[in-house]
Design brief:
The protein has 481 residues and is an alpha/beta fold. The chain has 3 domains: 55 residues; 209 residues, 2-Layer Sandwich (Endonuclease, Chain A), CATH 3.30.870.10; 166 residues, Endonuclease Chain A (Endonuclease, Chain A, 2-Layer Sandwich), CATH 3.30.870.10. It is built from 19 helices and 21 strands. The strands form 5 sheets. Strands 11-20-18-17-12-14-15-21 form an 8-stranded mixed sheet, with helices on both faces. Strands 3-10-8-7-4-5-6 form a 7-stranded mixed sheet, sandwiched between helices. Helix 8 links the parallel strand 4 and strand 5. Helix 1 packs antiparallel against helix 2 and helix 14 packs across helix 19.
Length: 481
């Protein structure tokens, strides 16, 4: 090896560290995240540079993902123009809807999504209800099936899906299947080949390739979307695979929540799919049948919120903060991961300290990601001290992502209560401003509490030193991602 390499390599490494450090400084990240990056670059420069390349870049992501904007879809623009309603005069069945305008207003300010009234929503609890509903909807498809998922597994259920998509495509239904290139990386070539041979259009979002994966590896499409004929749509926490029906081999039970939507809110759900598809494939979709005219179907005011690294504002993060901060009576959360930033943690603690009933259902014995699970426990003490009630689910693994506020607002979607969902992943949630739906979700929440053990602050404080070190170490890693 030439001797000059021993001089050039350290110099180049030092220069690269300084350049990355300056970039991080100029990005004006939060002080603690900036400090974490500086520390890892100082003590582990090679590791730090690699981590930054794949996980740390933030300023340029907006330019890269800027085309993922469902506000630019001409047909959706026209529908929005003709159907936008005023929150000051929002009536359902001739009764004025009494909701805190701050929540829907902040979503509308950040995303091209507005409250629509002509909707009917159905909560689907757990896999059997969800999969029965989506397969039934797809079997009845006549014009198109739009499917977008983070994880689709090549197992019995995944192959049942493949066979149905093949059948519908052969019947002349336009089938578009978008999957996340990392989450569904194990689908296999044969699975995808059979779909393509049947004229199913297939695309991978940010495919995971070796030996040099994309520098945007950290930004994943975590959405779970199904739209059939523009008439029925689904979103929620459940991916597609045998495990999500009954827990599979890992869990005695998989607890999750999904949502079926029919009505005007589907236009926004469809818009998100079309935007994601066009970004991934480079192919434009301009079919009027995707946004059909609708008869009166219901009166459940609904708003779709999509968020991701394509925007300057974290829509779902801001919406959650606003929902918690404006609550008057209760905030009930179910989440499989609890990695909080300062603002969300402060909102939860302030709500509890002011007398709001704040409850969180979180996985107990069963979990799927150890480091995230351990890191989540590091937030418990400060929340418990403020009066937040935390319950550890024992029946199986709880993967639902739900929020209810004051028994008047129900939120169901793909976003977890964690920084990855808020800052890095493409997510989609439905905000339903309806007492009946909120109460139905509350009923399920109480059933989950009955299958959970409450966390006692005194008992929790007595956990072992090893547990505390493990939790703190896991928490230290989270700001780097």
């Amino acid at each position: 090896m030439p001797t000059w390499l021993f001089e050039v390599v350290p110099l180049a490494l030092t220069l690269a560290v300084y350049i990355v450090g300056i970039i991080i400084f100029l990005e004006n990240r939060s002080p603690h995240r900036t400090l974490y990056w500086f520390l890892i670059l100082a003590f582990l420069p090679v590791v730090g540079l690699i981590l930054y390349l794949f996980f740390g870049r933030s300023a340029s992501r907006y330019k890269y993902f800027s085309k993922m904007n469902h506000a630019d879809i001409p047909l959706l623009k026209e529908k929005i123009k003709n159907s936008t309603v005023s929150l000051d005069n929002l009536y359902v069945n001739n009764v004025r809807l009494n909701i805190n305008k701050r929540l829907p207003c902040i979503i509308s300010a950040i995303t091209p999504s507005y409250v629509t009234v002509n909707n009917r929503c159905r909560i689907l609890n757990n896999g059997r209800e969800k999969f029965e509903a989506i397969f039934d909807a797809m079997e009845q498809a006549q014009h198109h099936i739009h499917l977008e998922y983070f994880i689709v597994k090549n197992d019995h259920l995944g192959n049942k899906l493949k066979e149905l998509l093949v059948t519908k495509a052969q019947e002349g239904v336009k089938v578009r299947f978008l999957y996340d290139g990392l989450g569904s990386r194990k689908l296999g070539r044969q699975y995808l080949k059979e779909l393509r041979e049947a004229n199913v259009e297939v695309a991978a979002f940010q495919p995971f390739t070796l030996p040099l994966p994309s520098t945007w590896l950290n930004y994943r499409n975590h959405r779970k979307i199904l739209v059939v004929d523009g008439k029925s749509g689904f979103l929620g926490g459940l991916n597609i695979g045998d495990e999500y029906i009954d827990g599979g081999k890992r869990f005695p039970f998989w607890r999750d929540t999904h949502l079926e939507i029919k009505g005007e809110a589907l236009d926004f759900l469809q818009g998100v799919f079309v935007s994601d598809w066009e970004f991934t494939t480079g192919k434009k979709i301009n079919e009027k049948a995707l946004f059909p005219e609708r008869a009166i179907i219901g009166g459940q005011a609904t708003q779709i919120a999509a968020s991701g690294p394509d925007g300057n504002w974290e829509a779902i993060h801001h919406a959650y903060f606003t929902a918690i901060a404006t609550a008057k009576k209760s905030v009930h959360i179910t989440t499989p991961y609890l990695i909080l930033d300062d603002s969300t943690a402060t909102a939860l603690k302030a709500a509890a300290l002011s007398g709001i009933d704040v409850k969180i259902v979180f996985p107990g014995t069963y979990h799927d990601h150890k480091i995230v699970y351990w890191a989540s426990f590091s937030y418990f003490t400060e929340l418990l001290r403020a009066g937040v009630q935390i319950y550890l689910y024992q029946k199986g693994f709880v993967h639902a992502k739900t929020l209810t506020v004051d028994s008047e607002v129900a939120v169901i979607g793909t976003a977890n209560m964690d920084m990855r969902s808020f800052y890095y992943s493409f997510e989609i949630n439905a905000f339903i401003y309806n007492h009946e739906i909120a109460m139905e979700l509350e009923k399920t929440f109480l059933e989950d509490i009955n299958c959970s053990n409450p966390v006692n602050l005194d008992d929790f404080s007595r956990r072992s030193i090893y547990a505390k070190i493990k939790e703190s170490g896991a928490r230290l890693l989270s700001p780097l991602l």
